[in-house]
Amino acid sequence: YYNNRIKVFNSSGAYLRSFGGYGNGCTQWQYARQFAIYDDKIYIADTYGHRIKVLNLTGGCIWNNGARFNYPHSIAVASSYVYVGHNNSYISHYTTNGVHQTGYYNAGSNLSYSWGMSLNSAGNKLVIADYNRNRLVEFTVSGQSLSYSQATSTSYSSSNGYFRRPTDGAYDSSGNIYGLDLYNHRMQKFNSSLSYQAKIGSYSTSSGFRYPYGIHIDSSDNIY
Description:
- The protein is mainly beta.
- The chain is built from no helices and 18 strands.
């Protein structure tokens, strides 16, 4: 985050390369909160540069839009559209082919601050970590259209099923939903109905978490 770069490792954890840097160029950004990889392209939410950057897997420029975003924090990519969350109730959507804006969705009272987001494998569900309201919110996706579906309970709490500032969410292959809990230093698991199932983590450098910010689940249900 503070070095404004992406670091690449192989599947055994060995370091391969880095790219990025602070700035406005296509291969630079300003404190990006989240990125997503789809079809071997890296889509970066350039939070303080107010842009979306698209790079290849070695950091080369593919696409760079002009400044137009209101502090984009979260990003998720499907076959035809890029979804971008901001520090408000809006979710913008863009085409993946050239990243042209196709519109936006105002979630109103259902969303306050999209810190992190992920799509399920089918691309028809979008989970968002609502940082301000301390909950996970799920939306149904149909092309450009989004609609509110369900959410976890809203309360700043360390009890099971609650959050103290959620930062990201993700789906496994069975449709279960996992949410990161920043100040409780843990990850929580919910079923597809957003009913609490389990938790793991505590404040630790060896066996737990210290302020977890991002999550990704691969096709084999490994959680990173």
